[in-house]
Amino acid sequence: MTKIKATNITWHEGHVSRDEREGLLKQKGVTIWFTGLSGSGKSTFAYTAEHALVQRGHLAYVLDGDNIRHGLNKNLGFSAEDREENIRRIGEVAKLFADTGVITMTSFISPYVKDRDIVRKLHEAASLPFVEIFVDTPIAVCEERDPKGLYKKARAGEIKGFTGIDDPYEAPPKPELTISAEKTTPQEGALAVIEYLESKGLLPTLAE
Amino acid sequence: MTKIKATNITWHEGHVSRDEREGLLKQKGVTIWFTGLSGSGKSTFAYTAEHALVQRGHLAYVLDGDNIRHGLNKNLGFSAEDREENIRRIGEVAKLFADTGVITMTSFISPYVKDRDIVRKLHEAASLPFVEIFVDTPIAVCEERDPKGLYKKARAGEIKGFTGIDDPYEAPPKPELTISAEKTTPQEGALAVIEYLESKGLLPTLAE
Q1: Which helix (H) or strand (E) is A43 found in, with range?
Q2: Is the dihedral of CA A148, A54, A27, B130 positive or negative?
Q3: Chain B closest CA to A53's CA: distance in Å?
Q4: Domains and CATH numbers, chain B
């Protein structure tokens, strides 16, 4: 190690450890994976949690269709192969974010157990916490909400292979949390996320 | 906006702005793109800068072959098409990191002007700063260093299409910074990066 007086920096070789970044941020890097049907409320829960976390001084970021499908994964379609690659890439990016110390939330239908389990194992292999949240809003409610008009198109046959209509949604057998837009307000959902992170020591509890 | 008394959180709709995260971190999100030959010292400069930044209390992260080639881009080879897709994906991920407010450094040979310019434009379109650093170490020095023994293999014909040997390296016509492992120590290089960020208002200057 060399000291350069002008800047008072101690020079190190090699990578900064995750611990150092987490110490700086006073939080643990984690991937919080929201899964559920289209219109189930995944993004609303994720963005509400993001706001609450940032307001508490924590660095949180949401990966969703808006910033992934038009960017990193814009060269992927909706074939079985492309759906798998879509989730694989999102999982890898979430892992990098979590390694940076960010409270990373992903909001994708991610309908297949197999693909989600690959992402979980990827995190476990890197000793990174992975929190799967099942947004278990009944399909009738999702279809009633239909914020993007997609169920209407799927019912009219204009979209093929739509999850819940003519493509399966595989519910997580053992999610860390289950919430539902039918029973949980966005605020209650965000609080449930924060309380979960606190209970696992991933977030410091607020001083009274 | 709703107040929930128990947690004292003001609830918002929609996305947290980049400004809010940058305010939290007391820094600006930026992508610092190191480009240069194999063995030119890109990663050493990037990791030294990362250490210096984290020691100053700033969140920095390096994307390089270690965490990208074995993860996100493990399904890519070295064909012209795959090299282009490699840089495209890295550019998209760097953009997401910068949008989170992270001082993001990428360390890849990235030999083609065209591919690097696509990444630059991607950042400009999102009003995110992009700093291209040309690590201009002469090939004779890189080959002498040959930290991974790759030049030896390329000269022996065991690796085809090796940048600088039988594949071109296109130097940046207008990089924001130029450094060289021949003339610049890792510490001097890291300081040059920090001073550049300070000069552009991307990093607060240290109190005397």
Answers
A1: helix A42-55
A2: positive
A3: 9
A4: 24-199 (3.40.50.300)
Give the residue on A whose Cα is nearest the Cα of B18. A61
Tell me how crowded residue A75 is: count the other CB atoms within 10 A of its CB.
10
Residue with tokens 């400009």, as numbered in its chain:
B124
d(CA A207, CA B151): 57
Which residue from A66, A70, A56, A64 is spatially nearest to A25, judged by alpha carbons? A56
Q: How many residues appear in chain A?
A: 208
Q: Which residue of chain B comes nearest to A96, CA vs CA?
A: B67
pLDDT per residue of chain B (208 residues) written in tens, 0 to 9:
344 444 455 555 568 999 999 999 999 999 999 999 999 999 999 999 999 999 999 999 999 988 999 899 999 988 889 999 999 999 999 999 999 999 999 999 999 999 999 999 999 999 999 999 999 999 999 999 998 899 999 999 999 989 999 999 999 999 999 999 999 999 999 999 999 999 999 998 865 4
In chain A, residues with a C-beta closer than 8 Å to the C-beta of B65 are none
Within 8 A of A94 by CB-CB distance, chain B residues are none
Across the interface, which of A10, A21, A55 has its CB nearest the CB of B9?
A55
Q: Count other C-beta atoms under 10 Å from residue B150's C-beta.
A: 18
**Cα distance from B157 to chain A (closest Cα, Å)?**
31
